[in-house]
Please model this.
Amino acid sequence: MKKITCFLFSLGMLGMSQVSEAQVIEDLSRKTKQELAKAKPDVVETSIGKLELPAPFSSESVNNPSKLVEWPEGKKPQAPAGFKVEIFADSLQHPRRTYIASNNDIFVVESNDKESSANQITLLRDTNSDGKPEEKHLFLKDLNQPYGMLILDGYFYVANVDALMRYKYKEGANFIDSEGEKILDLPAGGYNHHWTRNLISNKDGSKIYITVGSSSNVGEYGMEKEKRRANIIEINPDGTGERIFASGLRNPVGVDWNPITGELWTAVNERDKIGDNLVPDYITSVKDGGWYGWPYSYYGAIKDPRWTNDPHEEKVEAAIIPDVPVGPHTASLGLAFYTGDTFPEKYKNGAFVGQHGSWNRATLSGYKVLFVPMDKDGNPGQPEDFLTGFNAGENSNEVYGRPVGITQMADGSLLVNDDDGNKIWRISTE
Model:
């Protein structure tokens, strides 16, 4: 991928005194921000074309959280013509992610910020294949902010915020009441938690990959608190053999395998507080050993001005430009490649992206599901809206729900987890 050379900020221009090594300048002066805002936009070459990024602080950083309101009777998200959207499951407690077993048992993790997390996994079964579950069981309880789930070699794996657990599992079981085995401690705590730890195995089941987000926005609590964070970790199924597969990923959550290239892809939440349109979240292929810049730079070698006194030049120069920008502050969490046969041909092998939605933008962004097409060689095209209508109004900060996880069912339909709407939507062809 192409690299860029971005403008350098001199300490004289910034008017900053020297600080200790590895210390971020969390609060820049108003004068410094005004100087930075005068810079020309940066331009990078992504896998889908040129991306122009405004100068830091060229717009105000705002706190604009959405307000949740109930879905009106009969109202639902909108998909393109030819698709049908239905409620698959309702009355759940923050259903963040769905995992489907080989026997088509459907596992839903119900989890949220620590104060309001159900800390459980619910099992749903559609026994007559009518697109609605007839059975509902409390499968596993008393967890600690769970997110990732995986079934592998007779074990049911759960990624809690602070540990990877596994439980002996028998296919078709309605619940697990045995004590789990902790096979790996995971780092927890910090800014906004970034508590979602996702799981995926490779094709032969010999390795497991765990996503771990940062504990901060841009390292403001010290990089010693970021050990084993902002990474994708690789381990053996028994928890041994840990190594960092990729790093510099502020908050990687969604993970899936590109069905054409075989590459691991992830959806990443980028940093906040340097402008309305900085920094765009992205989905990207993940290179083994790859470094993606956080917190010292973004989109390759664009330096974060808050690290001017300790710029980490070598790290910045080595940073990989991510493949597909998907909008600033969209909180893109869900990622799933479509390998079914029931959607139109354009969707085959493309990626669906669940966008949980912004808080650091004057106009809300995200709150929808995107689709990113892939060509015959597995290269991405331009993102397009797929599932919209989660916003209550164009100029309103009210929303009906917040999409997160996306899962393909055996019949080729999609399940979309609506976190704050406490629903799971099923999207099929008419």
In short: The CA atoms of residues 67 and 155 lie 39 Å apart. The first strand starts at residue 42 and ends at 46.
